[in-house]
Design a protein that fits this description.
heterodimer, A: 443 residues, alpha+beta, Rossmann fold, Elongation Factor Tu (Ef-tu), domain 3, 3 domains, eight-stranded antiparallel β-sheet, six-stranded mixed β-sheet, 19% helix, disordered N terminus, B: 317 residues, 2 domains, 10 helices, 32% helix
Chain lengths: 443, 317
């Protein structure tokens, strides 16, 4: 059967079926964040359910579990509360990843819990997200947690923000309640330099404006949540980015020596003159190889192997870039870090730093400041505790080719790792992480 | 310099140099998988790829071949052999090993039963018995990174799994102590005796896997496609008659046209009735299917609602 015939059959069989055949859809990674009891699990459950992403046996299991718990109908939250420990305690303890596909897109959803102590999970979820959906309860409006989630999303460079004002049914679908919340959120987002933000009134419980448009809020003329998720632009035009190819390893075979890596950003072409950082040696790309054959051009986020004209010393940890577009090569630098471990970060700490594919020793020279997690205003600090975000000065044991995080998410980010037990201590963002507003001052 | 002001000088405006560069989702997933596999080879001493002949392990091996081409795959495969294998899958496994010049390590459940280290279960199911030979195989070969084909869409307990999942000496997974994973930076540090399970297909769905198999024209064991088979019904699933213990007297054998959606222990892997004779038809069936892959075909996940979580904690995938 030809693919087109299969498509036709499918359409006939399942006009609202769960999955489609289009192979050339794009992929959007997004995250959700909300406070406890905002109904986030219900919203995610509703999104999966109404987009036909929940299959029969899964739904039956949830219906059984709902009955066992004495619930009236189906508790959609049970679709996402994965671990038994969570079901017993009625909480969500960690980032969970969900997948669903519509005719337009494949979605990867990082579902992050809302407790104060789990800010680190939001940082984790937001680090790969292009969009974040923040939830509020319409009865409570913008609360401290909302501002935290907003600040973390802004800090992590998430370009598109959505505020879902949930439980609209509990405020009688009142437009003025929504308008007040929307205005407060918009001004908070603008203050943090986020320009792409939308606010959507929803009822996850009843399904209003999640996938299907509400019939109870005819005053609202904007997109439903899924409409927006399907329409928001994905990715950055690679032509607009500086080329950054971190080398993962050297591929050696008979008469073959290539440098393998995944483009972090930008475009490379066969014949390009390039500079290998941090050494700063200039050479030329003579070939871009893939298993499927040689290509003339490659762009982020493709994994490729490149051959270089000159027999120079290149290996893991090096970064291939274009001339006149080199990153800074530093031995010390300021960075914003989010402390992920319960062990505080202090001046004098010796750690391992992992930046792209380069691993070095590092010393925390000083803690410059801590950020107020709601306003991102700096305040003085001499250590950073779990879930705190602040700025430190780092010295490293060798040259490091870095970009500011605001310019490149992958060559501007790093991990700090405990030298002894190997745990991940902190997530790092090179520089001061927030684009300065015109006329604004950073310390 | 890459300061904000630097961009305008050096980077052309959109469309100036070429057409829009768009990467479809299968290529995004492929590139991510290749990146993960290369990171492991660069940072670990003795990786191994768990290979059952199932479609996920086959796709994983395909990514590994792409990651190092034109050099060969620089690590061996390990098969945890329950002894209840589909002959077609064993033939496929051996053919792949020979064709791509790979090394195969086998961890045998049968051997453990024969020498008394494991006891057969009353229900005849051997999937829960795989854990011990798997962990012993990891320890005796000093493997420090173990590639698995697990996907987060398979089951709720897997939705919280990391791409790099640290296991203690007992192979145990503690959901509360997993390392946060940010950007594409993976932390593979581990103590002697510990190892890391790595899941390059974490972000793939069942449909992604099938679409990729079609796109790449990847060969699969023949049982994935429709064929005639003698089967009997147990717990709502079509099982294959065989030495492992089925059918009981009350379970009549019937000849049906079936295919498998997963490959595992014969005693608990069910076939679905299907006439899908090629990958495109399989995809068409999946697209309209309303039963999840595990729900349709794996009896061992049905034991309890939290079955998967318990088995993960114990060191099974």
């Amino acid at each position: 059967m030809e693919t087109s015939e299969v498509n036709a059959t499918l359409t006939a069989l399942a006009p609202a079926g769960p999955l489609r055949l289009d192979r050339d859809i794009d992929m959007l990674r997004f995250a959700t964040a909300g406070s406890v009891d905002d109904g986030k699990s219900t919203l995610v459950g509703r999104l999966l359910h109404d987009s036909k992403s929940v299959l029969t046996d899964t739904l039956e299991a949830v219906e059984r579990a709902s009955r066992d718990r004495g619930a009236d109908g189906v508790e959609l939250a049970l679709l996402t509360d994965g671990l038994r420990a969570e079901r017993e305690q009625g909480i969500t303890i960690d980032v969970a990843y969900r997948y669903f596909t519509t005719t337009r897109r494949k979605f990867v959803l990082a579902d992050t819990p809302g407790h104060v102590q789990y800010t680190r999970n939001m940082v984790t979820g937001a680090s790969t997200a292009e969009l974040v959906v923040i939830l509020v309860d319409a009865r409570k409006g913008v609360v401290e947690q909302t501002r935290r989630h907003l600040a973390v999303a802004a800090l992590l460079g998430v370009r598109h923000l959505v505020l879902a004002v949930n439980k609209m049914d509990l405020v009688d679908f009142d437009e003025s309640t929504f308008t007040v919340i929307a205005a407060e959120f918009a001004s908070a987002a603008e203050a943090l330099g986020v320009t792409d933000h939308v606010v959507i009134p929803v009822s996850a419980q009843l399904g209003d404006n999640v996938v299907d448009a509400s019939t109870s809020m005819l005053w609202y003329h904007g997109p439903t949540l899924l409409d927006h998720l399907e329409a928001v632009p994905v990715g950055i035009d690679a032509w607009m980015q500086l080329a950054r190819l971190p080398i993962q390893l050297v591929v050696r075979a008979a008469d073959y020596r290539g440098y393998a890596g995944q483009l972090a950003s930008g475009v490379i072409e066969r014949g390009d003159v390039v500079v290998v950082m941090p050494a700063g040696v200039t050479t030329t790309i003579v070939g871009i190889d893939t298993f499927d054959g040689e290509v003339a051009l490659a762009h982020a986020p493709q994994s490729v192997t490149v051959r270089l004209a000159d027999d120079i010393d290149v290996g893991r940890g090096d970064l291939i870039v274009h001339p006149r577009q080199e990153p800074r090569v530093v031995r010390e630098f300021d960075a914003t870090v989010c402390q992920l471990s319960d062990r505080p970060l202090r001046a004098g700490d010796r750690v391992t730093i992992k930046h792209t594919t380069r691993v070095l020793k590092a010393i925390v020279d000083s803690v410059n400041y801590r950020l107020d997690i709601e306003t991102l205003a700096p305040e003085s600090a001499d250590l950073l505790g779990l879930n705190e975000i602040g700025n430190v000065h780092l010295r490293v044991s060798g040259p490091l080719a870095i970009d500011d995080y605001v310019d490149d998410r992958l060559t501007g980010s790093f991990l700090l790792i405990d030298e002894h037990d190997g745990q991940t201590l902190a997530a790092g963002l090179v520089g001061h992480a927030i684009r300065t507003k015109p006329g604004g001052e950073r310390p | 310099m890459t300061a904000a002001g630097g961009y305008a000088d050096t980077v052309p405006s959109p469309g100036e140099l070429g057409p829009a560069l768009h990467l479809p989702h299968l290529e995004v997933l492929e590139s991510e998988g290749i990146h993960i596999i290369r990171e492991v080879v660069a940072e670990f001493e003795r990786p191994v790829l768990l290979f059952s002949g199932g479609k996920d392990s086959v796709v994983m091996l395909h990514l590994a071949r792409k990651a190092f081409w034109p050099a060969p795959v620089p690590f061996p495969l390990m098969h945890v052999d329950t002894g209840h294998n589909f002959p077609e899958v064993m033939a496929y496994r051996d053919d792949v090993v020979e064709r791509f010049g790979l090394r195969l390590v086998v961890a045998s459940v049968q051997e453990y039963i024969d020498n008394g280290k494991l006891r057969e279960r009353s229900d005849g199911t051997r999937n829960p018995l795989q854990t011990v030979p798997l962990l012993d195989g990891i320890v005796s070969n000093k493997f420090d990174a173990v590639f698995g084909g697990g996907r987060r869409d398979e089951e709720k307990a897997r939705a919280k799994e990391r791409i790099f999942s640290l296991r203690d000496e007992f192979g145990q997974w503690d959901p509360r102590r997993q390392r946060p994973e940010l950007w594409n930076l993976y932390n593979g540090r581990h103590r002697p005796g510990e190892h890391v399970r790595v899941f390059p297909l974490s972000n793939w769905t069942e449909l992604d896997v099938w679409q990729y198999i079609e796109r790449e024209s990847i060969d699969l064991p023949s049982i994935y496609l429709s064929h005639d088979r003698d089967v009997f019904k147990r717990d709502g699933m079509w099982l294959t008659a065989g030495e492992w213990g089925g059918p009981r007297e009350s379970e009549p054998i019937e000849r049906r046209v079936v295919r498998y959606r997963t490959v595992g222990d014969m005693s608990c892997t069910g076939a679905v009735e299907s006439t899908a004779a090629d990958i495109a038809e399989v995809i068409a069936e999946i697209a309209v299917s309303t039963i999840t892959e595990r729900g349709a075909t794996r009896a061992d996940d049905k034991l309890s609602e939290a079955a998967m979580e318990d088995r993960k904690r114990e060191g099974y995938f």
